[in-house]
Amino acid sequence: MPAARPPSARPGADPGRRRFLGALSGLPLLATGGLAGCGEEEETRVDDGPIELSVFWWGGPKRAEATEQALGLYSQQNPRVRFRVTWQGLTGYYDRLATQAASGNVPDLFQIDDTVLTEYAQREIVLDLSRYVADNRLDLRGVPQSLARYGQVAERTMAVAAAQTTAALVYNRDLLRRLRMPEPRSGMPWREYVEWAGRVTGASGGRAAGTTDPSGDYRALWLWLRGQGAELYQGRQLGFGSAELLDWFEFWQVARSGRATPNAPLMEQADTGDLSHQLVVTGHGAASFAWAHQLPELQRQTGDELGLASFPGSTAAEWARASMYWAVFRGTRHPDVAVDVINFLTTNVAAGRILGIERGLNASLPVRQVVADGITDQVEKQVTALGTAVNDLLGPAPAPPPKGHAKVRTLLIDAAENVRSGRTGAHAAASRFMAQANAALAE
């Protein structure tokens, strides 16, 4: 991953911005508290001169190239607006976002995900976009209702999906062909999926596990819970009890005893989230769990052909999920222009063609269809085909995760790794997780 472009200093931060920066001092993420001086009147100020917007996102070179081209197209159509862009990999992204703020360079427009959306909304870091949606200056009429809702906190639109994705099963087609094993089906019942994985491990002579061990994967747990009528969260609390988590841990203990999953050290590497360490590309497993839009990047990591299917369990447990969002800083000097840029990236067909599916399927269904019709790459076609196949089967969107979600994700990984390695029993790990996770959510 190339180093992020060094941000250039922005002269003369306004008073509201300076108050925001002062509140940031010493915090690992972003400020707690509101932005005095950034009221409704300031937000609606008319921009009548040259405008420069700072834009920040995470991703690789391909995402950077496409995003800059799309922003360049906006500037062609709006010559007085230009962009100063910064991008980097996800690792350290949120720390850098805070560092930019502390140096006086808060980005006007930036990319976030559902890990921090609620927290940033509650801290009044992101601009409330509701009034722009109400008068269609931010036109979400082509965005699926559940996808639009997944950008709302307390019924206010605080961010807009940059794209839609789905949790997916990525499997090694060539490996399964060599083993003369069938491919997994979309929506296989969980127990049937684990039985299939055990047969794959056996057919490989133990050289490759049939499936990853997702006991520490919050996506998998969330969908498992939704398949049983529960949720990962209920407001600012966990939406399930220790009994459900114990069932989850014990389910994967049985899978491990049946040799369906790999050993603990291999799973600890995969738990880092680094795509190059996913078992489906390292040769240590036939299937991994990932986001559907990550298939092209995973395919670039291996010479074997990869396939894509929906997660095990009912597809109705899934929802139209934002792969990531575009958000506007509440202290921006140019809120109307920043929102117009989001609207352009969401609804403009030419911009949609440039952006492709690198972040996932376009949030706007009309643009998504045009983009899909023009795709020729076979790997990208799999992504769009899965999105089309499941779109009408998805369930309602839950509220975005509450503040503390990032800590809960880490605690789940730690608990699962302790169980896998035998350092802790499943019952003790589940009880400890419940106590620590609820404490993290209460902070």
From TrEMBL:
It comes from Micromonospora rhizosphaerae. It holds the Pfam family SBP_bac_8. It comes from the Bacteria. The lineage of its organism: Bacteria, Bacillati, Actinomycetota, Actinomycetes, Micromonosporales. SUPFAM superfamilies: Periplasmic binding protein-like II (SSF53850). This is Carbohydrate ABC transporter substrate-binding protein, CUT1 family. Transmembrane segments: none annotated.
